[in-house]
Each structure stands twice: as structure tokens, then as C-alpha cells.
Amino acid sequence: MHNLYFAGVDVGSLSTDVCIIDQSGKVFSEMVMPTGVNGSEAAERAFDASLKQADLTRTDISAITATGYGRASVAFATGKTTEISCHGVGAHQLFPKTGTVIDIGGQDSKVIQVDTHGRMLDFAMNDKCAAGTGRFLEVMANRLELDLDELSNPLNIKGESAPISSTCTVFAESEVISLLAKNTPREEIVHGLQRSIVNRIWGMVTSIGIQGEVTLTGGVAHNRGLVALLEAKLGLSLNIPDNPQTVGALGGAHIACRAYHSTLESSTT
To answer: CB neighbours of 39 closer than 8 A, spacing ≥ 6?
Structure first.
């Protein structure tokens, strides 16, 4: 039997991510590109780049699942599903003992409980504002005149932490401006910002609880300082994927594979 290929396309607020796998689950391509102002164009661009990376054409792909906030704009998808479902499946594929997924995305963050197959059981989500998200860190890095790599260093994890009390990005930025005016060391402000995100995640964790291993997804998983603080708060080690931004797309590709074979089985019975 010839090889079958499946794709997941995750159109997020900041990035559009694509993953292509074959029917065995082997990953052939992973792509992350800025979404920009047009999710439909971003999906086309990222998908074409991913196909080129995998040395495949569109006709080689048997099924495509679109996910993310912009999933409705992916005209070439054969199916669509929520990013919550996709992150659960993707995290489970990478770390089979995952029982809890913490996803810190560009504009929202969520804690997801999954079963032994990666299917969502329960979740808590912060989507009311950008606090505790990748966008929050981008705004603060800009205000502190740091790049995101500098912001992700595990600065002063056990030292002083500047108080960042606001749960709103706009007000938190005002707090940062005030702290800078008082000559507060930047590492203390970074520590305070990271701690504010961890506290936001902790609130969601306590609302639904933790089971099994905990896998962290989303681009913020690259932030080593935040990971260290979150692990200390939770009292456990986190599973960190090699490519945390593409976990949703990976889950989407696996969901596409399952849907394809399910349809195939239905048509032959």
C-alpha cells in the first residue's frame, strides 16, 4: 500500500503552524509562520511551505484538519476541530502518559485534562484578555527593551520579584513603566512578570486539578525562566516538546488520520 499523508493546520492569533505525518505517525514536516492580518493567506502560505519541506504535493495529502481560532478560514481543510482537542491529542502523541496539558498561546491560555487516548475530559481557559499569554510577554519585552530570548532567561528565579498585581495587560504595562521609573532592576521586573503568568495558570490548574504527567505546549514553553517558576509552583517536572508551537498542528494531523480511516471503515461495512 502506498504511503498516506495527513496534515494539521493550526491558525493562531500570532502564528500559523502546520504538521504533516504519514499513517504511522511519522512526522515529515513542521512549519511555523506569522499569521499576519489574513488567516486564510497564512494557512495557504504555511501549508505550501510545509509541503515543500516534506517534498510532497497537495494531492499527496489524504485529509487535513484545521484548528485554532482561524480554522474557519482554511478553505482546503477536510475537517475542522477545536485547538483544545488538538493540543490534547498532540501532547498525548509526544508524551503518552500526559494527563494534563497546559497550553500558553498567543492570545489565550488553557489547562486541559485528557484521558489515556488524549481526548479532552475537562478544561479551563483564559480568553478574556491577553494577560498570561505570549502576546503579554511580547508587549512587556518591548516595554523593557529586551528581546524574547532575553526575557526567557531564568533570571533571578529565587531572588527578588517586583510586584505585578494587575491581571490586565494594559494595566500591567503601566505597572512596569512605574517600576522602571523607580529604577527597579529589570531582572526583578522580568521575574515579577513571569510570576504573574504562573499565578494565572495556577488559578486554572486549581479549578480542574492535575492528573498524570503535565505537558506544556505553545511558544511560551521556550521561556526557561517561566518553566522553572511553573515547575516550582506545581511541584513537578513538565514535559516540554522539542517544538511546542506545533503540538496543536500535530494533534490536528492525527485527528485527520483517524477521521480518514474511520470514514474508510464505514464505507466498507
So the answer is: 11, 16, 70, 73, 74
Pair (59, 103) in one structural domain: no
Residue numbers of the domain that contains 122? 99-240
28's grid cell: 515529515
Which residues make Cβ contacts (< 8 Å) with residue 177, sequence separation at least 6?
Answer: 143
Say if 93 falls within a structural domain: no
pLDDT tens, residue by residue, 37-51: 999 999 999 999 999
CATH number at residue 201: 3.30.420.40
**Proportion of the chain above pLDDT 70, given as a percent:** 87
Query: In the chain, how many domains are there?
Result: 2
The band of 198, judged by pLDDT with boundaries at 50, 70 and 90, is confident
Q: Give the amino acid at 11.
A: V
Backbone phi, psi, residue 216, to 5°: -100, 125
Beta strands, E only, 172-218: 213-217
79 and 186 part of one domain: no
CA 123 to CA 207: how far, in whole Å? 9
